[in-house]
Amino acid sequence: MSVFDMIESEVRSYCRSWPVTFDRATGSRIFDENGQGYLDFFAGAGALNYGHNNPILKQAVIDYIQRDGVTHSLDMQTVAKRDFLETFSETVLAPRELDYKIMFPGPAGANAVEAALKLARKVTGRESVINFTNAFHGMTLGALSVTGNSLKRGGAGIPLVHATPMPFDNYLDGLTPDFMLFERLLKDSGSGLNEPAAVIVETVQGEGGINVASVEWLRSLSELCQRQGILLIVDDVQMGCGRTGPFFSFEAAGIKPDIVCLSKSIGGFGLPLGLTLLRPELDVWEPGEHNGTFRGINPAFVASTEALKTYWTDDTLEKSTLAKGEQVGRALTDLALAYPEAGLKARGRGLARGLLFADGDTAGKVCRAAFDRGLLMETAGPDGEVAKIMPPLTVTDAELEEGLAIVDDAVAATLGGLR
Ligand code: PLP
After folding, report:
1. Tell me, which fold does domain 3-54+315-418 have in CATH?
2. Which tens digits make up the pLDDT trace of 312-329?
């Protein structure tokens, strides 16, 4: 029995899908301790958009540590943090005419979400938040209350309150204009809906199964929030930092959320960093009112700054992500067409892609078959019925083709008879 089985909690999950012990990783490939390589089309659930041990970011972090740069600094002022704030402002905010203030809420996505929810409630004096079916916002109690998955919600141990789910785009299969329900409930004084402080939304639901909100839906949501005086929070923890093409996933819709949550790939190197961006008028915090020990992990600032300078001063990465995303999308559509009996559906935007299977069991078998052939990908969706394809954005064309060929093989091995 391994030490993992002996003393690590039963709560562990990814290691059950990939039961080997990993040791090294570069770019889109991760190696186990025996030197067996795997193409990584999971990319740290979106935390490794620039690949494993990206050499440019690695050098910046090594140089910083080598010169005894401050590692831990709470929210004290450091040179690394100043460089990050200046670079984020010049590279990300200014070109998009965004004037957000930047809050460091703690490193995890859930930290960024908790801060957003707290702030929305503080600003509006209202308690209720609107979330969407199949949303995923994290495991802390506030974030969990706006998360859909019943297994995860069940882990809370207390009632999860002050959140009301509405249908996400296309939840009703396009048969009913799902957006109308929310608007109707808001307008109807007899609906029983508490006046919401905020709406929290992912533009593409990652954990929820790669459910893509159309730009029209997002625009309507943003307009509705403005009309009704409800704050719009976009949780870009997984889809931000270029996963769908542009730096922010909401850019395609041309909307400007009131609050934006970032984590995962904002740390550049897989290092922990979270941000909550807020419209300046919303910055009503008292000093220290929302606090935390790990809000100044300087090697993460260094890696993030380097990533912004390397990948976000022009649109090269954005264009290549869109092109590669189209390529994956075509490959998945072809697969769906090749197995007409299996009811497969391709979905996604940019390099957040998914293939919907009839059930979670089949999707799980496909991911397992992919692992046996040297590819990491995971399932998503309420019953794990979507095989999710999220390579690093820096994946090469050759690696992408190699990975897609494995997906093809894995589907054939699982569904062979249905072709
Ligand atoms: N929000 C979204 C959209 C996510 O996908 C995730 C994690 O997958 C989170 C929040 C929570 O992030 P973390 O696991 O870092 O707390």
Report:
1. Aspartate Aminotransferase, domain 1 (3.90.1150)
2. 999 999 999 999 999 999
